[in-house]
């Protein structure tokens, strides 16, 4: 049972050498009386948040527990049920939920809340558009952002798993949408594949304030925050009165011993901005409603989705590290095994 384990707690920027590939053994049989499920992992989701779980820092809010060195990484994935001790699951079911970075996993059924019912779309989509990131984009944009037709929306890390969806949901709502991303290729994707009205490469435009002023001469109504730091600081100067900042993630700050200072927070007061964070897990009850919204749009080509699929558990560490330099183009997925 090949696995990707954390060698030791990580300080600073994540490196491939912080993880190891090890061979373990697993009995492909459920222990007597177990109500767990035995999974064959097929696709694993590479998520920036996983870096937060690699630091030896107990989250003061106790909303997450760090990984244990020597144990496999844990995260979202798509898997096939090999054996089930829980009546809701049976052998052969396809599921998505929380699993481990290894070929086979024994997990409590409570961590695998979703059975995959629609298989006429790529299975890997359940690590993204039809999984946790999809509900994140949907709930964050609609429930927290409360968009109205004609509003001006800015999305950072816009070509990533969540960003590409937020941009497209915003266009379908009749908003004006601009995204930032870290390469020319990604900017082209934003404008020509995902239908953003405009986009810029933040690595080539260090004056983010000027870039935002050019794209939003009348200011931003909704900022969908994925990166934090300097981007947030520049956005604060460009928000409109009564704008909303949807705090989804702050990838640029993950793993930093000292978070970057944000200096323009008084704009929140002068512009009466609502800045609200959210956790996707609170919105899981919306999943059926989200599927109803998104599945037909995928099938009709009204929403497109770009994935970056890397094959083989041994390539997992590099895929994960790449999230922090922007090596991934679209949703970073790790293919562990075919069905
Ligand atoms: P992405 O697919 O967007 O991958 C990460 C991207 O972030 C990279 O490709 C890179 O793109 C960008 N990036 C990395 N480092 C920096 C940096 N220093 N400055 C600016 N951009 C950077 O990830 P996801 O779509 O999966 O996640 C997006 C965010 O949403 C994350 O912060 C994640 O933690 C958060 N999230 C929050 C949830 C919640 O419940 N609130 C649930 C799920 C995700 P580029 O080349 O453009 O720089």
TrEMBL record:
Q: Which CDD domains match?
A: double_bond_reductase_like
Q: Tell me the Gene3D superfamilies matching this sequence.
A: Medium-chain alcohol dehydrogenases, catalytic domain (3.90.180.10), NAD(P)-binding Rossmann-like Domain (3.40.50.720)
Taxonomy, top ranks, is: Eukaryota, Viridiplantae, Streptophyta, Embryophyta, Tracheophyta
InterPro entries, alphabetically? Answer: ADH-like_C, ADH_N_2, ER, GroES-like_sf, MDR_fam, NAD(P)-bd_dom_sf
Q: Name one Pfam family in it.
A: ADH_N_2
Q: Protein name, please?
A: Enoyl reductase (ER) domain-containing protein
User: Is the keyword Phosphoprotein assigned to this protein?
Assistant: no
* Keyword Transcription regulation tagged: no
- Give the species: Stylosanthes scabra
**What residue stretches are annotated with the Enoyl reductase (ER) domain?**
37-334
Report the SUPFAM superfamilies cross-referenced here. GroES-like, NAD(P)-binding Rossmann-fold domains
Q: Which UniProt keywords apply?
A: Oxidoreductase
